[in-house]
Amino acid sequence: MHPTHHVHPMHRTRPFRIPAAVIAVTGLLLSACSGGTGHQAAASVSAPSSVPAATAAPAPSDTAASPTTTATLAPLPAAIPADLEPYYKQKLSWRSCGVPDFECASMKVPLDYAHPVARDDLKLAVARKKASGPGKRLGSLLVNPGGPGGSAIDYLQYAATGYPAAVTARYDMAAVDPRGVARSEPVKCLSDKQMDAYTAVDSTPDTTAETEKLAAADRTFADGCKKMSAALIGHVSTVDSARDMDVLRQLLGDPKLNYVGKSYGTFLGATYAGLFPQRVGRLVLDGAMDPSVNALESSRVQAGGFEVAFDAFARDCVKRSDCPLGRTSAADAGTRLDALFAGLDKHPLPTGTDRPLTEALGTTGVIAAMYDQEAWPALRGALISANKGDGAPLLQLSDSYYERDEAGKYSNLMYANAAVNCLDLPPAFRSPADVKKAVASFRAASPHFGTALAWSSLICGYWTLPATGHPERIQAKGAAPILVVGTTRDPATPYTWARSLAAQLSSGHLLTYDGDGHTAYARGSTCIDTAVNAYLLSGTVPPPHKKCT
Predict the structure, then answer these.
(1) How far from 406 is each of 396, 402, 426, CA to CA, in Å?
(2) Among 151, 124, 128, 154, which Cα is nearest to 139's?
(3) Which UniProt keywords apply (predicted)?
(4) At what angle do helices 432-445 and 295-317 cross, to 10 degrees?
(5) How far from 222 is each of 144, 202, 214, 428, 466, CA to CA, in Å?
């Protein structure tokens, strides 16, 4: 659920639009677990195979603590508290979104569920596309692409037209931008120019001065979030967003929640199931996170996931005549990638702009392409250009990951990512000294990305508020069957997490995709789509040990 450091993975109005790169949102899990490689964590946002994908993971308060927990998320009382009834009884006023067949509305939720006060209410953006038919309507199907920080409404525009027709014919496809994200009271932290500087900071510091600069950048980021979003950042946890989804479920007229969550969206969906097991309808958790693992272990395991993905890319690359990493072996390709990063560390490449390609930005560009094998040709081309002294294509990949547009404007993806991650789990590291102790273990998990991803996990150590959450197993006793989907070579949410989550859930069922890329449903596998469709349309779960290739 948390992206890479500078790879971490608004109250600005965002137009309703068809997203150019839904993928980048799908993979941002790491800000709590890690940040982008520039200075962020990998997030988890999911997207179709033809769309660019993104990254994610959490953090522990004690680096020596056990990586997993035996604590279990307790459900909330089934009855709706009297002081929350006004939220559950409000009426949605639907209007055109400006895109054919899509409707938009807004809903009010309390800033603080423990102490709801009307003057502090938040306004969340909601959108839907009604079932197209034919067939009997099955209710609403909420979707969330992950992040945290990814816009569910942007993703809805893909899901409502790109999910299998058998599903969109019978469900009203719906989404809410989570609190703090995109159109829903967006968290703000830095100006665009400050974000440019932040993403370029050296994430593999070799000297005391470089270490101090990286730590100062993290402090500036955290202080900026407090300064610009003080009232909000203490109330953007995943538990808060899961409770918001239950309000929306009621407003849409659904007795139970039907949901497809990708990447971090699986943590959001699993949290919902743990809090409201009796209201679980059909939940698909694709690209699963393990809620029982602390931030340090999550970051380290995710680093290993990116290594597995790079190895798959390298093995494919060396078979091709245009491979920019040589044609000898995957190991040799990795050596050449390391040499490229080392060169960028000493001599950033020109890009034709005032932003040279630093090591941090170059690493983020490579990581961005690990989310989807459909991005591998673009990465090969970018590496060919880098070998010729042109850093522009790799910078474009990095910018797509950070959701920076051609005008230099950033979405609030990375700000929301850090805010959610740093509330959900205690930090992986509290000081640069903690990171230095852990670098060797990160490098063991990921020789090519481990150092950068370790340093990317420091951001929450400087957060201005203590975490309100902690690692917990989620059992959701009494819930209807829940389908967990895991991809064997998923870079952002390793397959081991899917197995763990399916085992924790009292009604969990695991569906395996033996393949590459981040998440599996509606991304090209007929086998996966058939199994998930059967579950969404009739409640039929796949047989035990079902594997698709």
Answers:
(1) 9, 12, 35
(2) 128
(3) Hydrolase, Signal
(4) 40
(5) 26, 18, 13, 15, 12
User: Which two three-digit tokens encode residue 499?
Assistant: 């197995």
In DSSP notation, 161-221 reads HHS-HHHHTTEEEEEEPPTTBTTBS------HHHHHHHHHS-SS--SHHHHHHHHHHHHHH
User: Cα angle vertex 236, ends 230, 240, to 5°?
Assistant: 140
Catalytic one among 140, 518, 525, 529? 518
Verdict on whether the full-model pTM lies above 0.70: yes
Peptide bond preceding 205: is omega within 30 degrees of 0, i.e. cis? no
Contact 413, 188 (CB under 8 A): no
Cα(421)–Cα(29) distance, rounded to whole angstroms? Answer: 8
DSSP helix, strand, coil percent of the chain (3-state; round to 5): 45, 15, 40
Interval 290-330: pLDDT, tens: 999 999 999 999 999 999 999 999 999 999 999 999 999 99
Q: Is the dihedral of CA 504, 143, 109, 89 positive or negative?
A: negative
347 is catalytic: no
Which residues 6+ apart lie within 8 Å of 549 measured at CB?
513, 514, 515, 527
What is the per-residue pLDDT across 258-270, written as a single tens digit (0 to 9) for each? 999 999 999 999 9
Task: Encode pLDDT of 464-475 as tens digits.
Answer: 999 999 999 999
Q: Could you give the residue ranges of the DSSP H alpha helices within 61-190?
A: 85-89, 152-162, 165-168
Exactly one of 263, 385, 446, 507 is catalytic; which is it?
Answer: 263
Active-site annotation holds for 263: yes
Supply the Cα-derived Rg of the chain in whole angstroms.
21
CB neighbours (10 Å) of residue 16? 17
